[in-house]
Specification:
Layout (H helix, E strand, L loop, with lengths): L6 H15 L30 E5 L3 E2 L4 E8 L7 E8 L8 E4 L4 E6 L2 E7 L7 E7 L9 E10 L2 E7 L4 E2 L21 E5 L12 E8 L2 E9 L3 E7 L8 E7 L5 E7 L7 E3 L4 E9 L3 E8 L14 E9 L12 E4 L4 E2 L15 H27 L8 E2 L2 E2 H28 L6 H21 L9 H30 L7 H28 L7 H25 L1
Parallel strand pairs: 2-11
Antiparallel strand pairs: 1-3, 3-8, 4-7, 4-9, 5-8, 6-7, 9-10, 12-13, 13-14, 14-20, 15-16, 15-21, 16-17, 17-18, 19-20, 21-22, 21-23, 24-25
Helix pairs in contact: 2-3, 2-5, 2-6, 2-7, 3-4, 4-5, 5-6, 6-7
């Protein structure tokens, strides 16, 4: 073949082959975390005793211990590449995390964390040192360090083991005592939701306790979540610049304790665990999380607050992803006042998530556009013939009822609008305030348009009729949308969303009444003598009140 006669082409093919064999000279071998076997073509691992050793500076460990690991070669031998992991005896999954202290070593990500160490280049090495930190939680047991040594591309050893390190800590399978209330108010500052709930008797209880002893705190947390429970210390009742401890599932499903600082509505920044000891964790039924530990870390909220012991207490819970990273919380509870961590005698209660003024806003909007506004619109559309030529001040009854009900709706809407803006004093963002403002604007426009309407027999009266009907329809649609988005805010952290379902039932009920009224109107035009308009109105009012009362109770309990 002509290609074989080209020395340049032959050299190129040869270099490509060398590149395939030596493609891991940089040590970035996370793809073989499980097997620890180099991808060196068809070459197999050696079965003879390796001229290299793996040793640890201790024979036992417990949670959070740091172990120094040494990789050494026998005199006359050196290795070019390596991979080091810690595994429980008999397991194929790496555990713990490493730190490197050698310029020829680098951290590797295995199972979402720095659970392995490898070479940085293929220069020959006689020894490597690394530091391994034991997990702080989870079901632990005896471990051994395992290493792969690469002498040349075709000569390597896989799974060279250290001596076994005995686990001497308290296994996470032996659950710590569930936090209990008897010490609350005596030696512990406690905060829970519902207030004063007992986690020993109520798995729906979210609970935290802090017992301060000079410069250390014994912290307990308990709650139900698919991923994590977190507690926080804050200078205010809003999330942001808060000192946080998280007890959540890692990528293997085991509980771990993390220290973090919150940065607002984004994921918190994970910090070094710092001076945290005596960690105990348990996971019951897959979603009941219980953690306790001792912290000597100073609380830092990154603020200029003068107090060093008074903080708002926070509890949050939510899911984690498959890598063990926490997601946005689905539960959040904040204390109503600051708690002095040095004074366990105080009673710490949960703050209302929605102040009374916000609840009043919601109730007024429900009454306006579920009841008075809806009935006023029904009367104007379907009951003009009822008590015709009977009324007051020359106006028919239906007209007086319609105007009165709609005036009440506009007045209540204006009051609700003023209440919520006086509370927020800012634009909160989202769809709900936009919808509310549109409802308020159109509600004010509608009576102005009505005041300048022409006489009923005027040739251009149809313009007013169409405009009035269109604005009314727009207000109704926007008001319903505003109610849905408002209820969604009340139920932001609720799983069942029952108030949204009740509102959906009301919309279906109202639509049914409109259909029945329309069918009755068509029947009347065909000469049917039946006049059930009033009966349907009373029926609508009864159903309306049932839905309204249910939602008002729901808002009151939020």
């Amino acid at each position: 073949m002509e290609v074989c006669k080209s020395p340049q082409m032959f050299l190129y093919v040869l270099l490509c082959c060398v590149g395939v064999v030596r493609c891991y000279g940089n040590g970035l071998v996370s793809s073989v975390c499980g097997s620890m076997k180099p991808n060196h073509g068809s070459n197999s691992a050696q079965t003879s005793t390796a001229p290299f050793t793996v040793t640890a500076d201790n024979t036992a460990f417990k949670e959070g211990d740091q172990i120094t690991v040494l990789l050494n070669s026998q005199p006359g031998d050196q290795f070019e590449g390596f991979m080091l992991q810690a595994r429980q005896v008999g397991s194929t999954t790496s555990i713990g995390t490493f730190n490197v202290v050698d310029s020829n070593a680098q951290l590797l990500s295995c199972n979402g964390a720095s659970r392995a160490v490898s070479h940085t280049s293929d220069t020959k090495k006689s020894s490597i040192q690394a530091k391994w930190t034991a997990p702080t939680s989870g079901q632990l047991g005896d471990i051994e360090f395992r290493a792969t040594f690469v002498k040349t591309a075709s000569t390597f050893w896989v799974g060279v083991k250290s001596s076994t390190l005995a686990y001497t800590g308290t296994s996470a399978t032996a659950a710590p005592t569930v936090p209990s209330n008897p010490d609350c108010g005596k030696t512990k500052v406690c905060f829970s939701h519902p207030s004063s709930c007992d986690p020993t008797a109520n798995t729906g209880c979210y609970f935290m306790a802090v017992q301060t002893n000079q410069s250390e705190m014994r912290i307990e947390m308990f709650g139900q979540a698919d991923g994590y429970v977190a507690i926080g210390f804050s200078d205010d009742q809003e999330m942001g610049n808060d000192d946080i401890y998280i007890c959540g599932k890692d990528s293997s499903g085991n509980l771990q304790v993390q220290h973090a600082i919150s940065t607002g509505k984004t994921a918190p920044t994970i910090l070094s665990l710092g001076n945290v000891t005596d960690i105990k964790t348990t996971l019951m039924n897959g979603n009941t999380i219980n953690c306790s530990f001792t912290s000597r870390n100073a609380i830092s909220t990154r603020s200029r607050a003068t107090s060093t012991s008074e903080y708002y207490l926070m509890i949050a819970a939510g899911p984690s992803n498959s890598q063990g990273n926490i997601q946005i919380h689905t539960k959040k509870y904040v204390s109503s006042t600051k708690a002095n961590l040095q004074d366990p005698s105080q009673v710490v209660t949960s703050a209302e998530e929605f102040p009374a003024i916000v609840k009043a806003h919601g109730c007024l909007m429900l009454i306006s556009w579920m009841t008075t506004g809806s009935i006023g619109m029904l009367i104007a559309r379907y009951l003009k013939g009822v008590a015709k030529d009977h009324g007051c001040c020359g106006k028919d009854f239906w007209f007086m009822a319609h105007v009165s009900l709609m005036a009440l709706s506009v007045t209540a809407t204006a009051i609700a609008f003023i209440l919520v803006f006086s509370y927020a004093r800012d634009w909160s963002g989202g769809a709900h305030p936009v919808l509310g403002c549109l409802v308020m604007i159109l509600s004010l426009i509608q009576p102005i348009v009505a005041a300048f309407r022409c006489e009923p027999n005027h040739e251009r009266r149809f313009v007013f009729n169409w405009a009035h009907s269109f604005i009314a329809l727009a207000i109704k649609g926007l008001a319903v949308a505003a109610i849905f988005t408002g209820l969604a805010l009340f139920e932001e952290y609720e799983e069942d969303g029952w108030m949204l379902k009740v509102m959906g039932g009301f919309v279906a009920w109202e639509a049914l009444i409109y259909v029945l009224q329309d069918l009755n109107l068509r029947a009347k035009r065909k000469g049917n003598a039946m006049r059930p308009e009033t009966v349907l109105l009373v029926l609508f009012l009864l159903g309306n009140l049932a839905f309204l009362i249910a939602l008002l109770v729901g808002i009151g309990r939020s």
